[in-house]
What does this fold into?
Amino acid sequence: MTEPDPAATLRRFAEECVALVGQQYGRRLDWSPESLDELDEVCELLLADGPLPDERLDLWWKLVGAYAGEVLIRAHGGSWTMHDAAQGAYAVSVQGMTALPFSTAQRVLSREPYKSLGSFVRAFPAILERGRGAGKES
It folds into this structure.
């Protein structure tokens, strides 16, 4: 028996996010960085009645993190990778820099102030530029 391809599994989770957001919230996610603003709004709706129960939080963490990572990969190139800072999840590697979409998803779903999925991807070009002048990890 062969191990499943993590990238394919994560893409499938991202596709499930697109489908579920469409079905439950009537919103269209199109894989663009701008669609993460739409997903931020969906996350606000999810949290409107308070924190999510653990099982529902785990589901949305997986779907939102995978979608945010796939958007980053499509917008800036890169690939899924393992990383110590990812704490049991996958990270995205772009031009030698590491991004943690599941960490961002957790922060958004926990209502951490000033965290958004949209800014996660929009800020990445500046992070890449800064990383070229300093270290290779952010």
Summary: The domain at 6-133 is CATH 1.20.120.1090 (Four Helix Bundle (Hemerythrin (Met), subunit A)).
